[in-house]
Amino acid sequence: TGKGARGRVEGRAIAVGNRALCASLGVDPGIADEVAEAQRRRGRTAIYCLVDEMLVGVVSVADPIKDTTPDAVARLQGEGLRLVMVTGDAELTARAVAAELGIDEVFADTLPGGKVEIVRRLQAEGARVAMAGDGINDAPALAAADVGIAMGASGADLAREVANVVIRDDELATLSEAIAEGRAVYRNIRRAIEF
Question: Distance (Å, rounded) from C-alpha 177 to C-alpha 58?
Answer without folding.
Answer: 39
